[in-house]
Fold this sequence. Notes:
Layout: H1 2-16, H2 24-60, H3 63-69, H4 74-116, E1 121-124, E2 129-135, E3 138-148, E4 153-162, E5 168-180, E6 183-193, E7 196-207, H5 212-217, H6 230-239, H7 245-255, H8 257-270, H9 275-278, H10 281-308, H11 313-336
Antiparallel strand pairs: 1-2, 2-3, 3-4, 4-5, 5-6, 6-7
Amino acid sequence: MTVVFLIDFIELLRRAADKDGISLFVIIQMVLLRLPYLAQKLLPFIALFGGMLTFFKLTKTSELTVIRAAGVSVWQFLLPSMFIAFGIGMLILTVVNPISAAMQAQYGQMESKYFDKRSSFLSISPSDLWLRQVDDDGLSVIHARGAQNQGIDLTDVIIFEYNTDDIFTGRIDASRAKLFPGYWELQNVVITGPNKPAETESFMKLETSLTVHQIQESFASPKTLSFWDLPEFIETLELAGFSGDRHRLHWYSLMAGPILMIAMVLVAATFSLRSIRHGHTSLMVIGGIATGFVFYFLTDIIYALGLSGSLPIALAAGIPAIAITLFGLAMMFHLEDG
């Protein structure tokens, strides 16, 4: 975690080099806010390396040899380690994750303020959608009763317009609004404003700098929502006409975390217990580390397949934990039970 802290600190220093008003204290604060989230990402590796270190030490002191000679099977002396790993996984899921999500949300706000300078955001509820955008000409606030096609088509739209001094300049009502590159296409439009009569138009084009990507990315990131809040947010997202696949994948992957911790203990045992009789400790360590990184790489690929629709979301989230568990079990059965 110290290494991760230093790498993240240096990266933020690099990004802040051409920015004004970002002090060293702000950068340190951002790194500390992000650290719990990074710790969760590294947790499987921590379990893997911790397990390998434990079993290698027991091997070096011949304690495992004595345990085996007493008639205790490998499954019996692995059980406490797996139990501890599962307990840590559950603690991370239920207690640490909500704290980490809140800190990550704070990190995201600071990143937006100091680095990205984003001026648009989206707020969503089961019955309403709000979009806010700041352009050179002023501020626009868009309210809609419903959304389709990931926010491209809006229904029952009201647009409130303000100038650069935040003074209200007009209101646009439309039955539908569809987003095209560079503009909204409005239908059945009613235009009103201070001290002027209402105007009606069948169609109208309203310039905008918003894009589909910006709208979809305006949702709260899955990593800023706790395990307990994700189900309600996913339901709200889908009721409003948006896809909740990204958040559902994250939720399922969190639930698979404790099982993944057990799997890493099994993999650690696979690459450390054999050194008792066969040597080649260095090769075993390299093999364990390589397995961890291959697992991490393949996990990202499987998650991408889930988000693309090639795999069911629940299956994509569960495959990494299930696969590495089966690998560990198969290797232990082969090595220890013939």
